[in-house]
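Re: the request from the purification team.
They wanted to know what the chain is likely to look like in 3D before they choose a buffer screen. I agreed to run a prediction and write the result into the notebook, where they can find it.
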Amino acid sequence: MAFDISRRFYEICHYVCFALVLCNVLYRHLFYIAVMLLCYVGVWIYKRSQNTWMDINGQGILITGCDTGFGFHAVERFHDLGYTIIAGVLNMESKGAQKLRKKKSKRLHIVKLDVTSDTDVMEAVKYIQSKRLGLWGVVSNAGINFPGDVELTTTDQFQKVAEVNLYGGIRVIKGCLPLVRRSKGRVVVISSARGLYSWPGESAYNITKHGIETMADCLRLEMRKFGVKVVVVQPGDFDGATSIMSPIQLERIKQEFGTMWENASDEVRSTYGKEYLDNMYQARSTKMIDITPVSPDPITDAIQQALFRSTPFSRYFVGGTDGYVDIVGVSSAVMLDTKCLLAYVGHKTTEHL
């Protein structure tokens, strides 16, 4: 108890000191801060006034992960707006792929594209070249979610998530860069709000989103000399607009939890208990039942801006149904440290132990 009180006293002192330092800095540099803010607002207003919709002259847009979710909705909207779309799907017989094929449009090309396959990526690029479409932009959208504590998640499971969310995006972007560079076009990376902060039980997923964010930031600087713009779209919680909580995905998560338990050491099993994973799964099952359908339009709007505006932002942060949580998480990661998150989730991470 004494240790707990002293720790809390230390944390209170930590935040008080931070607040005092921040106030001192703001007071001493108030003039310079005001000038910087005015300059920023001026630049923002100027860029917005010059930000027009571009004519890409019929060049194609490659979008990955179009079986469901954001990718599927983006294909439908951009095709309806008159753009030429190359829709990459994991399964050519999926419901999404079949629905897109029913459009029977010469401006809609559906290709098999498993982002973990070098062969699929090369074949997709060859297809675009053979059709002489030109490639204005690539939207790296394909991804999977994966819950689990670090101590329970196997190394193979970490690698599986990274192969899709991180290396899959890099693989597709690298394959398309020569064509996009030629058109001085766009690279759009669909990341996540979780790419900006940490969250318990989400390490495998968050690692990949932090990684793809860093890759995009580096690529943006590297591509500037070629006139290619790199944009990141960061959705918050849009589970109701995707298949991330579908029965198929829940069954996959259930199997992955089984793998965790089978590979856990005796010590880890005795520490956590099987009910810990059962409760995690049950929480997600309950969320699927209670989930409210959410329109994907805010994300599609951001992708549209990123692709077709003359001066897009480097990032589009789009809060979802957990917008408050995302804002708190991002703010704490940028301004303070992960201790702020403990005030919100700390008690929840131990209640089943």
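For the purification team: Strands lie at 60-63, 84-89, 108-112, 135-140, 186-190, 229-235, 315-318.
Please add any questions underneath this entry.
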